[in-house]
């Protein structure tokens, strides 16, 4: 496929961009970036997760600039990060260090540490709340008489319970000191698991959800039980340049999901395999989808899309998909002219008239061997 | 118990401090025009957050976190700070505050008091958030035998 530069005049391009800005401004009051950060947390979380950059205020700015297009906002964040230096890698943290604000276990009713619903409307009806039209600034938790529960507890990981009982398949511990960074080195196939997790963590939410769903719909073998889903804050630690101590510079809000997958029919020792999901921000749908895909990819199948690492990793990245799909609307005049010329030439050779009928004087060869008028 | 006189503890408290508070103390410290050199300009940078996956125990890169580090030398004492996000002014102020406490500047008692207040506020917020979460803890009851 060939490309060619076209020219249309800078002024016209600026005019179109101005019109885009004008539509964002509209007739209503300007939305403050902090309002977007605070009130559209799911959207900014999606942009941060897919952008692979944790920066809540800039994510809000990106969402504002992109007029609410989460993938475009993620693109803006990735473009911004590409201009920055890397200070360092963080000290590796354990997910168990998370200060959880929500944790539910669909697998165990009486999970140690308890089921903490946290902030959710999962158990309510999905009905439009017309009170929000005029705004309702009243905080419904204002009158809560909350007892001091002390310092946040570290909640026991559900997979730890299975491991203690020997029910969890223990993979051979990988000899990995430094994971490959897929933002710096492209993934080669078959990928290492750390590459799979990084790519899924910044995968596009809809794509991760859809491919994970495909496994549940029968295009795969993984139908997991979720051991738990958590939302909470993970510390970001660096080594202090003067003291050498591990120090916390920030916390990232993350969503974590773990799934167990029964593999007793396939192994001599009946145990659970597992899948893992972790992504920036509150995005349970994506974390669960990631969990299913992680478990599916470990099966290393070729027949099912979700089990094919190359297929999954080549399609879940929002920037790649966004770029390739949306570039189709850019000028392809030379390419299309070439196709037109080719088709016209073939038709001419076959004696086809403009109305599609065969010229009476020249009997036509079928365009495709064996094709008939009925095709 | 966090100690603002301890360099590592102070780093964490400065990272959690309001930018306006840091700027106010930095201005106080610089009021007498002490010798100051900026060893590292405050510029947004990235820290790649690495997490250890809990079953295979394999580390992987979750994603990058935006931070702004800065480093100064103030009257012979070095100071380093890193603030989350794109916050150049706050990071430079934080490095000056760190150096001021390291060099026992006369503003140190006020700075330490402010940083202790940050520690208290952080602890209160953490405990409040945890208490609210625990307020939603539920015992699911199975409904076997019920129609």
TrEMBL record, chain A:
Annotated segments matching region Disordered: 168-192, 351-375
Classification via InterPro entries: PhnI
Alphabetical keyword list: Lyase
One GO process term, biological-process aspect: organic phosphonate metabolic process
A Pfam cross-reference name: PhnI
Domain of life: Archaea
Compositional bias segments (type: Basic and acidic residues): 181-192, 351-360
GO MF annotations in UniProt: lyase activity
Protein name listed in UniProt: Carbon-phosphorus lyase
TrEMBL record, chain B:
Signal peptide: none
GO molecular-function terms, A-Z: lyase activity
Biological processes, Gene Ontology terms: organic phosphonate metabolic process; organic phosphonate transport
Pfam families per UniProt: PhnG
Superkingdom per UniProt: Archaea
Keywords on record: Lyase
Protein name: Phosphonate C-P lyase system protein PhnG
Biological source species: Haloarcula taiwanensis
């Amino acid at each position: 496929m060939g490309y060619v530069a076209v020219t249309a005049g800078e002024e016209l391009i600026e005019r179109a961009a101005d019109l885009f800005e004008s539509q964002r401004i509209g007739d209503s009051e300007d939305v403050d970036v902090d309002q977007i950060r605070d009130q559209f947390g799911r959207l900014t979380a999606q942009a941060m997760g897919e952008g692979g950059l944790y920066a809540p205020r800039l994510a809000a700015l990106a969402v504002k600039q992109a007029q609410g297009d989460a993938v475009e906002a993620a693109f803006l964040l990735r473009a911004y990060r590409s201009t920055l230096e890397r200070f360092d890698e963080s000290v590796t943290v354990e997910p168990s260090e998370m200060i959880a604000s929500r944790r539910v276990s669909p697998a165990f009713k009486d999970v140690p540490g308890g089921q903490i619903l946290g902030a959710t409307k999962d158990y309510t009806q999905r009905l439009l709340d017309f009170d929000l039209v005029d705004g309702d600034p009243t905080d419904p938790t204002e009158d809560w008489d909350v007892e001091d529960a002390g310092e946040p507890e570290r909640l026991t990981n559900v997979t730890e319970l299975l491991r203690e009982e020997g029910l969890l398949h223990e993979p051979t511990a990988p000899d990995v000191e430094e994971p490959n960074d897929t933002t710096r080195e492209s993934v080669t196939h078959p990928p290492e698991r750390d590459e799979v997790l990084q790519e899924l963590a910044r995968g596009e939410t809809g794509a991760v959800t859809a491919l994970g769903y495909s496994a549940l719909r029968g295009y795969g073998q993984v139908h997991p039980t979720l051991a738990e889903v958590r939302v909470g804050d993970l510390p970001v630690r660096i080594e202090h340049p003067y003291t050498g101590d591990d120090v916390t510079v920030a916390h990232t809000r993350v969503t974590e999901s773990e799934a167990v997958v029964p593999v007793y029919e396939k192994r001599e020792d009946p145990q659970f395999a597992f899948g893992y999901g972790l992504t920036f921000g509150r995005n349970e749908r994506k974390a669960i989808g990631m969990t299913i895909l992680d478990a599916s990819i470990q099966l290393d199948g070729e027949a099912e899309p979700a089990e094919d690492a190359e297929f999954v990793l080549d399609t879940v990245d929002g920037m790649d998909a966004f770029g390739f799909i949306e570039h189709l609307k850019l000028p392809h005049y030379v390419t299309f002219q070439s196709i037109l010329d080719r088709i016209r030439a073939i038709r001419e050779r076959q004696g086809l008239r403009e109305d599609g009928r065969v010229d009476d004087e020249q009997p036509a060869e079928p365009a495709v061997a064996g094709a008939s008028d009925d095709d | 118990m966090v100690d603002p006189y301890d360099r590592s503890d102070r780093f964490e408290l400065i990272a959690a401090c309001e930018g306006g508070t840091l700027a106010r103390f930095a201005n106080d410290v610089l009021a007498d025009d002490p010798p100051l050199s900026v060893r590292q300009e405050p510029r947004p940078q990235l820290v790649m957050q690495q997490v250890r996956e809990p079953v295979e125990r394999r580390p992987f890169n979750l994603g990058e976190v935006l931070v702004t580090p800065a480093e100064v030398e103030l009257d012979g004492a070095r100071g380093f700070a890193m603030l989350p996000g794109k916050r150049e002014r706050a990071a430079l102020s934080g490095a000056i505050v760190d150096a001021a406490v390291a060099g026992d500047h006369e503003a140190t008692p006020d700075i330490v008091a402010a940083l202790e207040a940050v520690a208290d506020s952080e602890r209160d917020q953490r405990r409040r958030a945890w208490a609210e979460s625990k307020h939603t803890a539920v015992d699911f009851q199975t409904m076997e035998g019920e129609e």
